[in-house]
Amino acid sequence: MNMNKILIAILGAGIITVNPAHAEITSGSKHVHDKTTSASEVHEQEEGTSHQEHEPNAGDEDASHANKENHPNGSSDSEGHDDEHSEGDGKEDERGHGETANSASLSTSQMTLADIQVGTLTAKKVNFEFYAPGEILSNGYTSYQVSPRVPSVVLRRHVALGDHVKQGQPLVTLFSESVAQAQADYRTAWPEWQRVRELGRKTVGEQRYIRAKASWEAARATLQAYGLIESDLKSLASQDIKALGQYTLRAETDGSVLSDDFEQGQRVESGTPLIKLANEKQLWVEAHLPADRSLSLPVGTLADIVAGDLRVQGKVSQEAHTIDPVTRTRTVRLLVNNREHKLHPGQFAEVFFRFRTEKPVLAVQESALMRNPDGDWAVYVEVSSGKYRPVEVELGRALGALREITGIEPGVRIVTNGAFFVASQIAKGGFDPHNH
């Protein structure tokens, strides 16, 4: 009986001693899992977890131990093989890109198929043309605009559009009350002047002589200002005129009727254009050049003018020093002979100015120039037969179909035709499918 009490006391002391540890485990489990468990459940969970962690790791430890024995430095076969492969690929890519990105080797069949042509680059003086759009115009310095000088009414027309007229030929007859009054004044002043002049200055006196002469001269000048010519004045002086107020405008120069925008019976104000005459034996061609082109075009510079299937030669006569506010272009005027009347005002034309470089230059066709991957211009130099490499160049002036280049020595052989194919082959050689 005493023995039982002793055993119970010993067991009670052990339980009291163990309970604080279980309390700590239970508190930690509550904090991690956010749930309430008893001390015994926590102990069972810890034991289960410990067994699960240690059982599968046994084989791993053995495999790890074996690998460590085979590889003392701690690296696996796969890691070493990957490193070797990476280093080898890097060297191979670097070597491959260095050979293909800077040149292209073409077979004979490729060169034939792409029509690759090679020529020696030499410096020489270049004849070239510069194109500019143009328009054919009547010569403003030999043209004539027919218009009434006073308000009038159109009575009759004597010519039609396109007619060729001679100087002094009647064009249009008009009526004006102002002209009628001037004609009447002239018919009065002319006889008086004739009488005074016959009598003489001493007979009629200085004052009357001057007044008669001044009246006649003023009436004469007024009619001439209205467009009447000497023959019209003689008719008035002889009193051989049927109706006052009628007058006829005549051609002041030989030429063609380019416009006749009026109708018979129409009242027109002074200065209204009725007929435009132009001598088409020599016409203007106005060429429109870009405002930013610094081309020297002195008077006399020759140019070819193409209108339809007709090609003629002209020469620069004038150059405008202002920019057209509408087209923002610079106007250059040329003179062209047109004695056969094959050109007509209003036609559009193509103007080709002809130049020659003062000094020898290096120039190539535009098709020989290509952009390299950096965006710079380059030509392709022949290294050996069928092998080409790009050489960067700087572009200069546009010389018609050619382009001046610098940055390359003369004497080398370059691709003059098929540069695009060579560039595509170089680009293809530099393509990396692994995107390294």
Give keywords.
436 residues, alpha+beta, conserved putative lor/sdh protein from methanococcus maripaludis s2 fold, OB fold (Dihydrolipoamide Acetyltransferase, E2P), 4 domains, 4-stranded antiparallel beta sheet, 23 strands, 30% strand, rod-shaped, MFP_Cation_Efflux, BSH_CzcB-like, Efflux RND transporter periplasmic adaptor subunit
Task: Give structural notes.
- This protein is an alpha+beta fold and 436 residues long.
- It has four domains: 65 residues, no CATH class; 97 residues, conserved putative lor/sdh protein from methanococcus maripaludis s2 fold (Beta Barrel); 132 residues, RNA polymerase II/Efflux pump adaptor protein, barrel-sandwich hybrid domain (OB fold (Dihydrolipoamide Acetyltransferase, E2P), Beta Barrel); 75 residues, Efflux pump adaptor protein, beta barrel domain (Elongation Factor Tu (Ef-tu), domain 3, Beta Barrel), CATH 2.40.30.
- Helices cover 36% and strands 30% of the residues.
- It contains ten helices and 23 strands.
- The strands form six sheets. Strands 3-12-15-14-13-16 form a six-stranded antiparallel beta barrel. A four-stranded antiparallel beta sheet has the order 1-20-19-18, with helices on one face.
- A hairpin with a 2-residue loop joins strand 21 and strand 22.
- The longest helix has 32 residues.
- It is rod-shaped.
CATH topology of the largest domain: OB fold (Dihydrolipoamide Acetyltransferase, E2P)
Major beta sheet, strand line-up: 3-12-15-14-13-16
**CATH top level label of the largest domain:** Mainly Beta
Strand count: 23
